[in-house]
Design brief:
This protein is α+β, with helices and mostly antiparallel strands. It is built from 6 helices and 11 strands. Among the domains are: 130 residues, Ku70, Chain: A, Domain 2 (Beta Barrel), CATH 2.40.290; 69 residues, no CATH class.
Length: 354
């Protein structure tokens, strides 16, 4: 922070307390910029400032400001004219109120700055304001002047520093008229459940892990061209199945999100002609409970089936044994009966001798 050049010096007006501060940019751009060239020979294309009346190039020292009136006439405005403007915030960030953070519409937020304490005397009041903001869980709304106009700002605590977000004036934010669909659309509970499931599947992410992939790809192209090599080609995007309706799109999105996170997607009993649709529960927690119930149900059913099979086997074996015994008894009785019914053999007659 010590090596960052301040863009504005002044003070924070906190009631009767004045806190000397330096305004420094809190953000920086890493975008790759290009120059315009003449395609035929690679020469630089430059812009020159030319006076329309004299048709000649003029230097920066000869250029001033003017306001263009409705009829096209120019009204010159000098730096001296601007220095006499009745702005109490010319060198002061004047705090006008303390409000909850959710009172600030994000649409109003503009550029962000850090407020650095201006020397040792500013350390005590700076720390006082920072700790007061922390304890109150509020943000400060302030007015300040920068680059020739008065602006609105919001002060909040970031780490051990005080940051200020430039805010647009309320009348600079357009109302969202004519933006929302003008047709009557009904969203049912099942669609909302699928949307919730998709949100749960995507989960959260650490913002610090996000980066500008377009800039990285552009750097690769520039490096390849500088080395005289062919620039890398982007891979062909995967072509997905045709989405039949909103429900199919939501279900395919949930499935794709699960697969990208390494989770197993639930299998579907049926399939559609052009798109595979997976019916998933509304929320993860419900899915886990349902799976647990199904697993418990399967185990209980298995136990019941095993017990039933064992009982049936025992009953069958018992019946078989009883049947065998009865059959053997019948056979024995039949033999006895047969023996009784057979007539006794007559003794052979003896021949008399003469």
């Amino acid at each position: 922070m010590l090596h960052v050049r301040s863009i504005w010096n002044g003070a924070i007006s906190f009631g009767l307390v004045s806190i000397p501060i330096k305004l420094v940019n809190a953000t920086e751009s890493h975008s790759i910029s290009f120059r315009q060239i003449h395609v035929e020979d690679g020469g630089r294309i430059r812009y020159r400032k030319v006076c329309e009346l004299e048709e000649k190039e003029v230097s920066g020292a000869e250029i001033g400001k003017a306001y263009e009136d409705a009829d096209g006439s120019m009204i010159p405005i000098t730096d001296e004219d601007l220095s006499h403007l009745p702005l109490p915030t010319a060198r002061t960030i004047e705090i006008v109120a303390f409000v909850p953070a959710d009172r600030i519409d994000p649409l109003q937020m503009d550029a962000a700055y850090y407020l650095a304490a201006g020397g040792a005397p500013a350390a005590k009041p700076y720390t006082l304001l920072r700790e007061a903001l922390k304890r109150s869980n509020k943000v400060a709304v302030a007015k300040f002047a920068l680059r020739g106009k008065e602006r609105l700002g919001m002060l909040r605590v970031v780490g051990d520093a005080i940051a200020m977000h430039g805010l647009l004036w309320p009348d600079e934010v357009r109302a969202p008229e004519g933006v929302a669909p003008d047709t009557n659309v009904t969203v049912n509970d099942k669609e909302l459940d699928l949307a919730d499931a998709l949100m749960d599947t995507l989960g959260e992410i650490d913002i610090e892990e996000l980066h500008d992939e377009y800039r990285e790809a552009l750097e690769e192209v520039v490096a390849a061209k500088a080395a005289g090599e062919a620039p890398p080609q982007s891979p062909e995007p995967a072509r997905g199945g045709k989405v039949l309706d909103l429900m199919a799109a939501l279900e395919k999105s949930v499935k794709a999100a699960k697969e990208s996170r390494g989770e197993e997607a639930a299998e579907e009993d049926g399939s559609q002609e052009d798109a595979e649709v997976t019916h998933l529960p509304a929320r993860k927690r419900t899915a886990k409970k349902t799976a647990a119930k199904k697993s418990t149900g399967k185990k209980t059913a298995a136990k019941k089936t095993t017990a039933s099979s064992s009982s049936s086997a025992k009953k069958t074996a018992s019946k078989s044994s009883q049947s065998t015994k009865k059959t053997a008894a019948k056979k024995s009785t039949a033999k006895k009966t047969t023996t009784k019914q057979q007539p006794a053999k007559k003794p052979a007659s003896r021949k008399r001798s003469a």
